[in-house]
Specification:
About 35% of the residues lie in helices and about 25% in strands. It has about 475 residues and is of the alpha+beta class. It folds into three domains: about 5-45 and about 240-305 and about 415-469, FAD/NAD(P)-binding domain, CATH 3.50.50; about 50-90 and about 310-415, Alpha-Beta Complex (Polyamine Oxidase, Chain A, domain 2); about 105-210, protoporphyrinogen ix oxidase, domain 3. Flavin-adenine dinucleotide binds next to helix 1, strand 21 and helix 16.
């Protein structure tokens, strides 16, 4: 029987997971499907990239996977990496605001208080800011809305100070975006539901959050965090999935320029002028490239206006003795109102203890606030200098780093702005009508973060199989 051909474009975690699960399904169900994975660069993994140097394991891109979302764990187990799973140390973390570091108030969930006392005594907020936050207990719920910005929503419930000194730094760390632009319904629909059901976020969260299990962790005193990684670095997941793909699946250094429908068949045009045909295509690149590939189709227009932010991070290795004013914790975030240009700093040697030599410290700092995108384009030396200047406002580092690694990710943080879900739904519906057999999946579309991307890959595989059958 003639095989149906599926071309997957983009070899980041989404494309890799899609190729892996599609081949697995085809094998197990004996479906006549041939899979090709096309990647523009010379390596797979996209933004997942691990550097090993002088005994350090350094993540240039993502460094952690949220453990409670199961798709990443499933993929890790599929490829036999369960023995390498490590959990982060759930140490103290801090926020730099109002001129100094403050401990993150205990019981805050994404910056929303679930316990009153730690907030009431925290120096993060002024007395007036605390009073305003208490408004959450009495304010009525908002009128039902299809969408609104995270900023509008949280400012209304908890006031500006809680948003700017706590919620914004936490969310910026994940989305690298402006809280006043990002969509509540695309990113945290559960908070909207809590407000609609319980009115108060504080009361609602307390009622709806599962109580922490009385696990061994409490008894043994071990402090496991809510994230996982791999002891050998996250890129090992990429390599392991790649090694499980059938021979001849992957084409690297091949960029796709355009995808067009001719009858029942899709023509995939490469930048090098070659063309391959496919029965179905899964596009897993960022939205800018997807838009270009499907530029003949007007329904892709919303992606023209979808922003993405750039970020850079700097990993710096020091002997522990060089950090004179060390802090008991795993890192700090920076309030949006501070004069810092860095947005956060992770004490990687404390968060992921096995990834640095014993007597060494690895600090990882981030630049590229939404209103300071120029920072990403500074030279390596300038970025390191600005990072050290900011760090020394809190840490007193007496030596130069033994080495630094600066990584820039340009337009790599897609922004799900207000109305994102609606726009995606429209594009998907039109895609289904005009280009059935083409799927869009990946960080730009229905979930930033590694588990969200793997979820989309799994959904795309199901869709492709249904279509081909
Ligand atoms: P990508 O990784 O961007 O892969 C897309 C691939 O498509 C690339 O390999 C690219 O070369 C290829 N491509 C592009 N154009 C073409 C073309 N024309 N033809 C062929 N191939 C093409 N998530 C977490 O869960 N935890 C974290 O700690 C975390 N930290 C992050 C830190 C940073 C700095 C960044 C940038 C992201 C982070 N994320 C994190 C988000 C997460 O890493 C991404 O959402 C996810 O890895 C995106 O995967 P993807 O496959 O959708 O896209």
């Amino acid at each position: 029987m003639d095989k149906k051909k599926v071309i997957i474009i983009g070899g980041g975690i989404t494309g890799l997971a899609a190729a892996y699960y599609l081949q697995k399904e085809a094998r197990e169900k004996q479906l006549p499907i041939e899979v090709k994975l096309i990647e523009a660069s010379g390596r797979l993994g996209g933004v997942i990239s691990t550097e090993k140097r002088d005994g350090f394991i350094i993540e240039r891109g993502p460094d952690s996977i949220i453990a409670r979302k199961k798709s990443a764990m499933r993929l890790i187990e599929e490829v036999g990496l369960q023995d390498k799973i490590i959990s982060n140390t759930a140490g103290k973390s801090y926020i730099y605001a109002r001129g100094k570091l403050h401990t993150m108030p205990e019981g805050s969930f994404m910056g929303i208080p679930t316990k009153v006392t730690p907030f009431a005594v925290s120096g993060l907020f002024s007395p007036l800011g605390k009073l305003r936050a208490a408004g959450d207990f009495i304010l009525p719920k908002s009128e039902p809305k299809t969408d609104q910005s995270l900023g509008v929503f949280f400012r209304r419930r908890l006031g500006d100070e809680v948003v700017e000194n706590l919620i914004d730094p936490l969310l910026s760390g994940i989305y690298a975006g402006d809280i006043d632009e990002l969509s509540l319904m695309a990113l945290f629909p559960n908070f909207y539901e809590i407000e609609q059901k319980h009115r108060s976020l504080v009361i609602g969260l307390n009622k709806s959050m599962p109580k922490p299990p009385k696990t061994a962790a409490k008894k043994t005193g071990s402090k496991k965090g809510m994230f996982i990684s791999l002891s050998t670095g996250l890129e090992e997941l990429v390599q392991r999935v790649e090694s499980r793909l059938e021979k001849g699946t992957v084409m690297k250094r091949t960029a796709v320029k355009k995808v067009e429908k001719t009858g029942e068949i899709y023509k995939v045009h490469f930048e090098n002028g070659e063309v391959e045909t496919a029965d179905s295509v899964v596009i897993t690149t960022d939205h800018f490239h997807a838009l270009r590939m499907l530029s003949d189709y007007a329904f892709m227009e919303p992606f023209k206006h979808m922003p993405a932010n750039s970020v850079a991070n700097v990993a710096m290795a020091f002997p522990k003795s060089a950090i004179e004013k060390d802090i008991d914790g795993t890192g700090f975030l920076v309030s949006r109102n501070s004069d810092f240009r860095i947005t956060a700093c992770t004490w990687t040697h404390k968060k992921w203890p096995g990834t640095s030599p014993k007597d060494m410290a690895l600090l990882r700092c981030y630049v590229g606030k939404p209103d300071d995108q120029e920072a990403v384009e500074l030279s390596d030396d300038e970025i390191v200098e600005l990072v050290l200047r900011d760090l020394n406002k809190t840490m007193n580092i007496t030596a130069k780093p033994e080495f630094t690694i600066v990584t820039r990710w340009r337009k790599a943080m897609p922004q799900y702005t207000v109305g994102h879900l609606e726009r995606i739904a429209i594009v998907k519906a039109r895609l289904e009508q005009e280009l059935p057999g083409i799927c869009l999946a990946g960080g730009s579309f229905e979930g930033v973060g590694i588990p969200g991307c793997i979820d989309q890959a799994e959904a795309a595989v199901k869709k492709v199989i249904d279509y081909l059958e």
